[in-house]
Predict the structure.
Amino acid sequence: MADLNTEEGITRRSFLRATTAAAAGAAALTSALAPLRNIGDFPSVEEFIQKHYTELTPAQLTTVLGRIENEVQKEYGIRPHVRALKPMNGVEFVYALNLSRCCGCRKCVHACVAENNQSRSPEVQYIRVLKMPNDGRFDLESGDHNYNPESVPVPGHFFMPIQCHHCKNPPCVKVCPVKATWQEPDGITVIDYDWCIGCRYCEAACPYFARRFNFTEPSIPKEKINPNMSYLGNRPRHKGVMEKCHFCVQRTRAGQYPACLEACPTGSRKFGNILDPDSEVSYILKNKRVMILKEELGTLPRFFYYFDV
Amino acid sequence: MKRYLYFWKRCLKIAFVGDWRYYGWLGILLIIILGGVNAYAKQYLLGLGTTGMSDQVSWGVYIANFTFLVGMAAAAVMLVIPVYIYKNEELHDLVIFGELLAVAAILMCLAFVTVDLGRPDRFWHLIPGIGIFHFPGSMLSWDVLVLNGYLLINLHICGYHIYCRYCGRKPSNWLSIPVVFLGILWAVSIHTITAFLYVGLGGRHFWNSAVLGPRFIASAFTAGPAFIILTLQIIRQFSDYHVPDRALFTLRSIVQIAMPINMFLLINELFTEFYTTDRNSASSHYLFLGLHGHHALVPWIWTAIGLNITSMILLMLPLSRRLKWLDTACILAVIGIWIEKGMGMVVPGFVPTPIGEIVEYTPSKNEVLICLGIWAFGFFCYTIFLRMAVPILHGKLSRANEPAEANLT
């Protein structure tokens, strides 16, 4: 290294040298940052400073919903109706899925995509259906995720759809460093897409492969947009945030069934209020043979598999 | 205050003064950094789809390098302990080199975490008080605290000692010793908590193992001192600062102990995973043997184990008292542990997915460019830090030889 003797006052030459170096550096940095010139979707100031969903006052929430409606209209040319439905008192949702009946048609998967404004390119799907061999085992590793038969059901196989289990003890909620995902009083685990920082720790924590990350900007054809939207549910997402099944919060909090249930041709999917002793799901849990996926992890899912007996 | 600012002015000035080799080195690093900046600009524009990551393997080389570098930062204390606990005063100055390395490593860690975020513009959500900080629930929030705390502790120790040396006075024990001991505890905590990030995930059997934390510490205390041995020799080569051989051999004895412990813990892990036949060892099968015809990581992990074993044998032999062999052993150890702990620890945790799907991961070119950029940034920082620190420790840059025109009295 050079000696200290080079430490000197500013001379004309050193000034010129420093100026040249600074100019060259600035030019190099500018060209390195050139890709940012194409950026069109810098977050708006309102979005940038927006508070967490649970901290918004009713007035602020109204403003936020209006902003989202404007943004969707600008991007897709459709005026949506974005609501923030509250959980109902005395309601805790659970899901029950009949493994004896499911035929593996994946109608639930596509109904979910259509209802929840999921990206068509790249394809984002909340429900994963496994084709499992009837070979005396129950081993997820032998399941086929990309089966594509001529017709279903497939002899010698059964089918197992997996989606968010809305756990009572959710690992994803526990690990999120900014509380961008949480459990609502009606049992739905939701995500504030405007608060998520995209660290994907929840995705690593989920034992059910239920979470999906927007690795690129989602794309949805304009004519496929479902305008009945909710803040915590199916409003369009942007790149860099997590999403997943939310039990169709925009439907179920308004008294409708989830889209996957309505699409199921075999009646394998049952949904309802576990706090109501007369509900269908209460009957199933009391009277059927029920199985919980990965029960040993202690996640206490609100998603049950059951069998016809 | 005026004097302190003048001290900084002189430090900054000397940081950019050097011979052609120095400028050449900084120039190369700057070019690599700019390459990384360019790649990151593309990633920012297009999203993390520019990486090789997927929903199945949702963390890759960014988090792998982050994990490795937290260990490098923690290992800086391996220079502190001999000096402050065993009163090995001869190594006193070397503490500064170790802690400067820790500062550079933490800066790289923070950079790696930032480039891994999908929405870096929302980083303020993580700032306690302004955003919502999920503490103590989320281990990631613990990690944010301990890493930034460790950065501050090390900046304080380095900055304070160097400034005292500059002024030609002895550091006050009150202002330094408690912080140094806090730093020792803190170093262990940063790496333990980084291990807990993984260990705490009950759905990932590969990580959910009590031995992962001890393995992290053992491998960090191998790779860290090994790296410092190499660094000290570079300092000796390129400056007239005298690094005694004894310093290198003190570090050698640390590596000699840490490497066998690291290998021992690995054997424990392997036994647990492979002797029993439960279904929770699929990731280990994927890593070491390949699973259902997928074996992208198998050559890597066996290379790492080969390097580690060779390094351990070299370190055990008297041969490694010769610096050439010691250097070889250190280089093998650093590379071996980088593979084992980076790609060999992070990626297999995701393969197969918790519901049995196998998707392999290879970093994209853009991702690799960003990693190289961050490494170059780390080396750039460390070079600048040393360029400032060495003349001061050496007494060449001090209050006594402030130019007359400074007139600070």
